[in-house]
Structures are given as structure tokens and as C-alpha cells.
Amino acid sequence: MKPYYITTPIYYVNDRPHIGHCFTTLVADVAARFQRLARGGPPSPAPVFFLTGTDEHADKVVTSAAANHTTPQAWADLNAEQFRRAFDSLQVTNSDFIRTTEPRHAGRVPTYIAALQAAGDIYKGQYTGWYDEGQEEYLTETAAKDAQYRSPINARPLVRRTEDCYFFRLSAYQQALLGHINQHPGFILPESRRNEVLGRLRQGLNDVPVSRPVTSDPATQWGIRMPADDANRVYVWIDALFNYLTVVDTPDRRHLWPADVHLIGKDILWFHAVIWPALLMALRKSAPDFAWVDLPRCVFGHGWWIAEGQKMSKSLGNFIDLPRLDAYARRYSLDALRWYLLAQGPLAGTDADFSHARFVEVYNADLANAIGNSTSRVGNMIARYFDGVVPPPLQGRAGEGLPIPESDALAAEFPYLCRATVERSLAALDEFDLPTALRLGIDLVARVDLFINQTQPFKLAKTVDADPSARGRLADILYTCAETLRVASLLLSPAMPDKMATLWRDWNCHAELLDASADRPALESLARFAGPHALKPGAPLSRGDPLFMRADPAEPAPQ
Ligand code: MSP
To answer: Is 329 a domain residue?
Structure first.
């Protein structure tokens, strides 16, 4: 099986990381961890390749470097480090981190451009249009008009510009793109984004500029030069898109291509769902050397975070920045923060609001009251009634000619329920529906809680002295609960690796199996109820500390 290759956008280094960047990379991390878990196998060759990094040749890097009295390269170095640290602090498990100023990228981009030039897909011309200086992109005439000649992103007036430049023959790829998108319903997700792209694509395509002039202005001297033409540099967006390819365009990594998912925000959908695939189509046919350059399997455009009901902006100063996220991680645990961002984030169609009240609500409902409470309840009962030793499930539940007590009939469903839940979770993962893939873990926890309420093991425990068969049933109930929670914890572990590893250590499971650095079976085998990796009757199980303490909704937000 080809390793799963997932990418995030590469982030502009003119600024510090905030929730938007952290979110995209965190979602990719959870997808990467989930895929590693789903696939299993030895750590090497790695079953997943996960790429993130920084986009460094933007004009605004030059401007903000100057404003900070330093050079663009020094400014990029400083900020790239901030991104690296931010992702480390979120325990992101990226396989590589690309910076577009690195020679492995900057040295390779001109080769692609030259191939496109030789094939006639990049040609020289002149461009006049409406330029959004903040975004460093031209808007089409219609888009500029619709936006009343202001930036749709920051509302600053668009600027009319004319310049010599090289064009990419995007117009030649309209039919091929339409064909590809129509034949591959999963190519652009979610569906609403796909429709958005199709609608715009049907209106026709203009060729797009792929270079910017180099003048005496220092701001124009930052960037990769066009092949054999020092008077022009590669437009930062074209430079940036190629990162997905440069990183794997080495003999030992070429097998990783194509990317399985380019995870991005909705604002950069057009570049990824139209321009990028067209560039790849053009490159592929430009020379036999590039015959391996297939199209990525999926471009997934998530929505945006807003903060306490308002769009985040510099002028409002309401960005949820790294110190704010850290404060949440310190008070509620990093895993709780990861859970909230994943479970409540704008992955599907609509934007999501980061609100403190909501955070606490979700924390209490999913973590403190669900997985946290359920594991400590079951751990406590096993400690109390079975001296902290995993009790045995009933053998041969059916077919012994004995009436099946109520609890056994209910318990008998759990192996099937677990299997079906894991299958549904994997199916959701396949569609990049991570909130569902994770939520199914919480649903299993809810089933355990219901089962406890139905079978009342704490009442049954009071009868074991008078009725010896009750002890067997009690053991069966608690085994069923604990084993189902083990399966649930597997589904939760990509979002909450630390807490689930703590649970596995407490419960004397092999916690190293939650870690991709171990050689491990695929999820379906790992999660088999009472299977080879299940809780072992007779083994010690420590109740440990509660995984999540209840949060007080009245406490003010951490700062
Ligand atoms: N450098 C380009 C991407 C080049 S990829 C070949 C870029 N960088 S960015 O730093 O401005 O933004 C990167 C990502 O952060 C985008 O996917 C964008 O959608 C995301 N976010 C920025 N603000 C966001 C929110 N408020 N909410 C969620 N994601 C947002 O664009």
C-alpha cells in the first residue's frame, strides 16, 4: 500500500502562528495519527508522510522584516522557528517541515517552470489587473467588481497594476479540470466547496500570471528567479504550491506521490483545486521525466474559526493566538484543547466559533463526564469488587441451555457494537470526516454508561454473597465495560494521545501500541473485542487518577 501523504498549507512567515494555522496543522496531525493507527505496521517504512512548513518568498515578508529592522531571511528564520515551536507544543507529528527558502525547494522550482516553458504552457506577456496587496493576488474583473474594488479579506482598496510577466496557460485546462472533478467526486471536499469550484470553472478560465518583475525596489528582489531571466521572479503562490512536490521529488521519496490530501482553508481553495492540478497536468505532459506526476487524490477546504462570535482581525486584536491556546492547554490539558479544536472546528461547511463557554461545555460533556467519568467508574468498580484485577467475561454465553440473564443478553451485543463502530470510524476517516471518526469513540462510551445504568453492577455486587452466580455476571459486565472503553480509547487516541496512553498504562494494556514508533497490528486487529490485544482476565488494572476533572463554567477564560 502506498504511504498516506497528507499536507497542510505552508504558512506565511510575516506573522506569528495563531489558531487558524494551528488548526489546519492539528487536523492534519489527527488524520496522520489516525491513518498510522488504521494501517499499523512497523515504524519504517513509515505508513504516513505528513508535511507542513512555511511559505517565505512573499513580498510582505520583506515589508515586515524592514519594519522590524532586519533582513527578510533573518525574519523568515525567526518566524519559521515560531511555527516549528508552535507545532511541537501541540505535539504535532509531521514527518518533514519545508521552508521555501531551502535549496531543496528553491533549487527545484525552476526545473518545473523550465519544463512548462519548453512545453509552451508558460509564455511571456503583459498583465493588467486589480491587485490585492495584502493577499498578493490579482482578482478577476468580476471578483474585483463584486468586492467593490476592495480586498475581500482586509477591505483595503485594490490597486490597478500593469506589468510584464510570464503566464501559465490555465485556459487550456478548463475541460480537463471539469472532467477530472466530475469523474472524481472525492477530489474536492466537502461537497459545498466542490460546487463552488465547479460553478466558477464553468464560467471559463483565463491564463494566470506566474511571475513578478524584479526592479530596484528591494521588495521585488525577494523570490526565486525565473529560469534564465533575472528580471523576473516566480510569483510566490506558484513557488509555494510546488512545495508539495519538491519535498518528495527525490529518488527515495517519489513513491509517496500523489498526495492523498491537501488540507487547506477555504480562502485558498482556487489555488489548490484549480491552478495546482492544472500545473500538475501540464507538468506531467511536458516531459517523460514527469510522467509520474499524478493529480492529488483530494483537496479538502475547511472553514474558518471566528472568536467569541466575531471575525478575527488585527484591528480588533481578537486573534486567538498561541499564548491563549497555551493557557487552555495548561488549565484543561493539551489533549482537551486538541479535542475541542477537532470536535468543534470548522472542518465541514460552516465556520466555527471559539467561545470559552462552548469550550467548557464540550470539555465537561465529552471528556469529564464521558470518557473521564466512565473510565474512572469502571476502574473503581474493578478495584473494589475484583481487587484491581481484570475480571473474566462469561464463557459460552449462548448455547448452554441455560436461561440467559438480562445482563448477558445486553453484554453479548458489545463485541459486535465495537466492531461495527470501528468499521464506521474507518469509513469516516476515509472520507476525511474526522469529527465523526472521533465522535464514534464517545458514542461507545455513552453505550457503556447506558449499559451500566441498565445492569446496575453496583447493586449486583451487593448480592454476590447470597447468590454465587451473580459474581460471574458482575465480572462479565465489568469486563464488557472495560474492554469497550479500551476500544473507544483507540478511536479517541489520535486526538488525545497523552490521555489515552495514560489510560492504557493504568489499565496495564500495551501503551506502546498507541505509538507509531512501535511495530503494531492494524486498528481492526488492535480493537478486536476480547481479541489478541484485549484486556487480559487476571491481569492487574489500576484505577489511576481521573483523566479529566470537571471544569467550572463560572471560572473566567484562561488568559
Ligand atoms: N502561504 C499561503 C498558503 C500557501 S499553500 C501552498 C497562506 N498562508 S497563511 O499563513 O495566510 O494561511 C494558511 C492557512 O491558515 C490557510 O489555510 C488559511 O485558511 C488558514 N487560516 C488563516 N486564518 C484562519 C482562521 N481564522 N480559521 C481557520 N483557518 C484560517 O495562505
So the answer is: no
Tens digits of residue pLDDT in 66-80: 999 999 999 999 999
In a domain, 275, yes or no: yes
User: Is the shortest distance between the CB of 506 and ligand 1 below 6 Å?
Assistant: no
Residue type, 77: D
Q: How many domains does the chain have?
A: 2
Most informative mutation of 267, 311, 353 for ligand 1 (most atoms within 8 A of CB) = 267
168 and 53 belong to one structural domain:
yes
Same domain, 264 and 380: no
CATH of residue 211: 3.40.50.620
In tens, the pLDDT along 187-221 reads 999 999 999 999 999 999 999 999 999 988 888 89
Which residues lie across from 6 on neighbouring strands?
A: 50, 261
Q: Which ligand 1 atom sits nearest the alpha carbon of residue 15?
A: 10
Q: Give the structural domain span for 156.
A: 4-307
413 with 541: CB under 8 angstroms?
no
* CATH assignment of the domain containing 411: 1.10.730.10
Residue 455 covered by a domain: yes
> Residues 6 or more apart from 495 whose CB is under 8 A from it?
30, 335, 338, 339, 342, 343, 438
Within 10 angstroms of residue 133's Cβ, the number of other Cβ atoms is: 16
- For 374, the 3-state DSSP assignment is helix
pLDDT in tens, 81-132: 999 999 999 999 999 999 999 999 999 999 999 999 999 999 999 989 999 9
Question: What's CA 395's distance to the chain center, in Å?
Answer: 42
Note the pLDDT tens digit of each residue in 431-473: 999 999 999 999 999 999 999 999 999 999 999 999 988 999 9
Residues 277 and 403 placed together within one structural domain of the fold:
no
Task: Using DSSP, state whether 3 is helix, strand or coil.
Answer: coil
Residues 179 and 30 in one domain: yes
265 CB less than 6 Å from ligand 1? yes
